[in-house]
Amino acid sequence: MPKNTFYNINPEKRKRIINIAIKEFKDSHYENASINNIIKNAGIPKGSFYQYFENKKDLFEYIIGLVRKEKLNYVTERVRNPKEYRFFEVIHDMSNIALTFAENHPELQAISEKLVQDRDHDIYKEILSKNREIALSEYRELIELGITKGELDSNINSYLTAHMIYSYNREIVTFYIENPNFNKEEVINDYVSLLQYGIAK
Amino acid sequence: MPKNTFYNINPEKRKRIINIAIKEFKDSHYENASINNIIKNAGIPKGSFYQYFENKKDLFEYIIGLVRKEKLNYVTERVRNPKEYRFFEVIHDMSNIALTFAENHPELQAISEKLVQDRDHDIYKEILSKNREIALSEYRELIELGITKGELDSNINSYLTAHMIYSYNREIVTFYIENPNFNKEEVINDYVSLLQYGIAK
Amino acid sequence: MPKNTFYNINPEKRKRIINIAIKEFKDSHYENASINNIIKNAGIPKGSFYQYFENKKDLFEYIIGLVRKEKLNYVTERVRNPKEYRFFEVIHDMSNIALTFAENHPELQAISEKLVQDRDHDIYKEILSKNREIALSEYRELIELGITKGELDSNINSYLTAHMIYSYNREIVTFYIENPNFNKEEVINDYVSLLQYGIAK
Amino acid sequence: MPKNTFYNINPEKRKRIINIAIKEFKDSHYENASINNIIKNAGIPKGSFYQYFENKKDLFEYIIGLVRKEKLNYVTERVRNPKEYRFFEVIHDMSNIALTFAENHPELQAISEKLVQDRDHDIYKEILSKNREIALSEYRELIELGITKGELDSNINSYLTAHMIYSYNREIVTFYIENPNFNKEEVINDYVSLLQYGIAK
DNA sequence: AATGAATGAGCGTTCATTCAT
DNA sequence: TATGAATGAACGCTCATTCAT
Question: Which nucleotide is nearest to C28 (CA to C1')?
Fold first, then answer.
């Protein structure tokens, strides 16, 4: 957690540091992201940096927190209480959120992607692994609820399906970023259909 | 590309260097992988290293090439002329290959995963992007062929579906590695079903 | 010398600062002792520290002064007018005091030891050298008085003897600390005998 | 241990590094002795330093080793097989060695003193503590042998006496350094006399 | 071709002290 | 007087690469 000092400084300066840091972490791996670069680009003395943050990790986790918080803003009523809504509606909303967020915050999305991707790296692991497990188990719950409610095929493997949805949710973002000419709503609908009915004739 | 000198040295030594490098790149990210470690562990002089390879990147790309080739061998030995087979048989076989490869070559799989995951990193991007595009377009061809042959639903978005298969194919490996108690054949069948018929009741 | 502000603050706070500083200087050498640690542990603002003390050295010298004063209290309460007593009685009493002090104030003793040991270090040298010279010359006076009174051998070199006593007095404390199973009174008696009659048969 | 590199460089450069390092360790505590100072003063690049030595500790231990070796030269030439000689002759010779060494190698003596003095510091502790225990137990052996041979008073406490001789041996060096006008041989004789017969009339 | 020493930029972090409020 | 933010020099050490032999 940043020290209080950081929250008390000139907001403009604070924003500058944040933006520079976001850029640094977007462009480089945690290990390679350079505090020296950050302070140089943000125009602050090295000593000041350590007045604001405990250490490099502290800054990183703060940035990650910002990303998460920003993403949270996008979450809709349906995704907040997923169990009360129909399964494919929830999936639809989650995709919509992911795509909209990626559209509006490409740098945050980049960091977010890095987090999810870099499963091997200690610092990412630390931050991610809990998240991932939570996400997977929440997906699984939803799936099993969907089966109970009769929305989903009772023969599917809920563990595997949770994984597939998890990975699919990420891939659709990549797809949308790489194919900006597609219509967002259509992409989402196609995606949900694929999940729903498969691809066989 | 390694220099000629590398191909002229004692094959045993060459193999040793390769194995040590694989281990290093498996354990650490490109940036953190240490030439110093590699030469120390492989027992070769530092000067020699630079006789064999232009630089760190050269070595990395060489190792990646090996991984690719090794994987390709797996694939080509097993999936000949995919277009002559039925779509879901091809998918089934490809999954089987991927899982078997991951089982038999965990280090190569680890590097391979790192590559695919780390889409943002310059060095990975450079190496990966071409590959990824090739894979995606091959999937797309297969899908369109499947539609033509009447195996697949003609309403599906072939671009998006290619992405889905691409991401599913990766995720199933992760799933299988993380859940070694599941039966391989069952996992694959469940996966193919999922793809085929979706998850809706 | 601490600034007046230091003497004006809440006595409890003053005592807390002193105790924390004693602990810091006991645990670390002057150079490594950290003002940051001290203020953090004492719970005072950094600015305040520099209101109380000129700088690190100022604090250190103050603490040393306290140690000296504390030790002096011990000594003056117990060894009054040494010149009026018999030489070996004085030695005996001084040893007793030194051992008792070490027993009762292990942290102050530790700092004290550090001071005496680290003869080379500038800061210690500065503080110590005067003390040491005073001690040596007082010992010498005592010795010469002892000779005059006929208690001591008139052939001994009073300079060298003063050094011997100085070093013995320190070593006996170390010995007693390192060998807590020995009986204090016996240790002192053995020491005085050694000094008195030497070790030759 | 320095790396081979260090032994292979230009002897003049090597000697320069050694001398600079000796000066640095003489003037500053281990923690405060600065590699940056050393390389700057010795005119070598930082990278080169780490070609020669593993790290700061490595350099320090090397310097300590030099001191010990140098001192050993003095000792072995003079105090061979102490147990075959008379006790006070051995003490006499040891003092002579200590004084002569201090005379001829004041900087090494300074480091040596620092080592013996700084009993609290981790790095010194590590190097010293074994030495100290060995010295103390060898003194004790000598003392007990002296008692057996009838040279020493059988009533003395051999543990305490060993400590006293240990500390005395150090103090005499200080004395001699601080009082260079005294005659060496006389100082030694006086010292031995004090030990032998004590100071009582 | 083989070797391994030379190089210096770069790393994250701590520090005692100053200074503006 | 009290505060705590600002400061930048300094720390030990690692690194990939170059170069002389």
Answer: E15
